[in-house]
Amino acid sequence: MEGTVKKRVLRRWVVVFVLAVLTVYPVAAGGPGTGEMSKRPGGGIEYLRVRYNLTQLMGEAVVNGVFEWRAESGYSPELPSSAMVWLTVTNRMGSGYIRVSPTVPDSGEGFGINSPGSPPWNRLIAQEFRGTQGSRWVDAETARAFWREGFQVTDIDLVW
Fold it and tell me: Comparing C-alpha atoms, which of 77, 65, 75, 92 is closest to residue 156?
């Protein structure tokens, strides 16, 4: 009987300890995870498809993604190596843009390749972008809160 009571008390203390740790060190939502989005952007691009994986590792955001595309008839089947994708991300806090910079495939040649990267929190979410340059980046604290909140990728843009 005494052993059973000790086990119950120990279990309760373990639960209290775990809850205390989670309160002090909250577990982050880890972003929206993986996904794929397609669109027909025009302007020489007939078709664009992006696969993305937004996760978190050891408290840091990890961004990875690749794209494939097809040129419209009469346009060049090659893009400059500076081409990249901006993901539009949205949640109840607002919206912003996350940059994905994989290798650039030729038109109709499938997906490029990419290695996951971990941008600094203060260069993770831009409030706007012009071509390949983001501007008005949200501060690190706001980016962390946005990431913890969870968000959806609502649009994609191919720029160079």
Answer: 65
Give one word for 124, left, alpha or beta, with left for phi > 0 and alpha for psi -120 to 50: alpha
The H or E element that residue 52 is part of is: strand 45-57
pTM: 0.80
- DSSP state for residue 123 in the 8-state scheme: G
The predicted pLDDT at position 7 comes to 53
Percent over 70 (pLDDT), the chain? 81
In a domain, 6, yes or no: no
Quote the mean pLDDT of the chain.
87
pLDDT surpassing 80 at residue 127: yes
Burial of residue 45 (number of CB atoms within 10 Å: 0-12, 13-18, 19+): middle
What is the distance in angstroms between the CA of the first residue and the CA of the last residue of the chain?
A: 72
Tally of domains in the chain: 1
CB 29 within 8 A of CB 59: no
Task: Give the structural domain span for 111.
Answer: 29-159
Tell me the residue type at 96: G
Q: Per the structure block, which two tokens stand in for 129? A: 């972008």
Does residue 41 belong to any structural domain of this protein? yes
